[in-house]
Amino acid sequence: xxxxxxxxxxxxxxxxxxxxxxxxxxxxxxxxxxxxxxxxxxxxxxxxxxxxxxxxxxxxxxxxxxxxxxxxxxxxxxxxxxxxxxxxxxxxxxxxxxxxxxxxxxxxxxxxxxxxxxxxxxxxxxxxxxxxxxxxxxxxxxxxxxxxxxxxxxxxxxxxxxxxxxxxxxxxxxxxxxxxxxxxxxxxxxxxxxxxxxxxxxxxxxxxxxxxxxxxxxxxxxxxxxxxxxxxxxxxxxxxxxxxxxxxxxxxxxxxxxxxxxxxxxxxxxxxxxxxxxxxxxxxxxxxxxxxxxxxxxxxxxxxxxxxxxxxxxxxxxxxxxxxxxxxxxxxxxxxxxxxxxxxxxxxxxxxxxxxxxxxxxxxxxxxxxxxxxxxxxxxxxxxxxxxxxxxxxxx
Length: 396
Known about the structure:
This protein is of the alpha/beta class. It has two domains: about 1-170 and about 350-385, Glycogen Phosphorylase B (Rossmann fold, 3-Layer(aba) Sandwich); about 175-345, Glycogen Phosphorylase B (Rossmann fold, 3-Layer(aba) Sandwich), CATH 3.40.50.2000. It has 15 helices and 13 strands. The protein has helices at about 15-25, 70-85, 95-110, 130-140, 150-160, 175-180, 205-215, 230-240, 255-260, 280-285, 300, 315-330, 330-345, 350-365, 375-385; strands spanning about 1-5, 30-40, 55-60, 90, 110-115, 145, 165-170, 190-195, 220-225, 245-250, 265-270, 290-295, 310. The protein has a seven-stranded parallel beta sheet, with helices on both faces. A six-stranded parallel beta sheet has the order 10-9-8-11-12-13, with helices on both faces. Helix 5 links the parallel strand 6 and strand 7. The protein is elongated and about 65 Å long. The two termini are about 40 Å apart.
């Protein structure tokens, strides 16, 4: 069997996943191929494409989507899919070029199609006509790959088709990479926030909440790890408002992030929108209790209130303040217990579980026949080519 995973880009978090899956599936007699569409214009283009493996390719390594016509993109995608001729195509949502074109090719060639998605439909507002057409197209997929079963309640309402298989866990990180090697102490008195400094990360609201917390208890520091266009404004905000015990560390190399997490006592993210939030996985794999905005989808799978952290409304400063104070006032043994709970809970979102879930669905699809789309669905599939969708990357 041949399997091809395709998306606008497959860098940063995807790299380690795909390297694991390539090896894991190879042992089962399955060949995995990876195809990125664009080398430029990605939120992750700081991580350049490096063609070092025959099974991994980038179709436009020196271009972004805005430099290309839809026809150029379509032609190259279809040519690559014809060349590999995979039995199963795995791609992102059909709102992207990868999903729309991948599904069209799969239906034309009577192949199977798995769609991965981590955005919740209720969080993406569309008019009824657009949503209706999207639903018609998406119902033609063979399987839906979601971060966790917590997403089911939203997707089952839209795609109530018993022939669609559900699988979970693609939003995982290399847990072992972040795990500390010795017993972790919780007397560093540092709460860390990791992320790009852009509007949706809501850092200024966190700083306002921290001012109150620091006035009540000035024994802890807020450490902000990351860079971005808001860095100068945020530093000025701290200075002009006399907010104490705030450290801006700027950007660091990815391989150094685990040591910064290890030196913290807890992780906080006040984001106004995250379709998942993989930094939460990283923090928990490093054994950190987590304080999370209720606008982070990962929170509804990975956070249990009072068990491994706390959840808050990111627009409500008083609630954020209270959750921070609640955590700071815990004893070291209580913080240690939260740490152990984070490690236990994140263990279910491992590369191994991701591989086993995918393998199980691939085995099912191998024994199923081709699902022919109806006339209306076929017309919709053939008329929609997708777009370059980076909804919610920097702004809400």
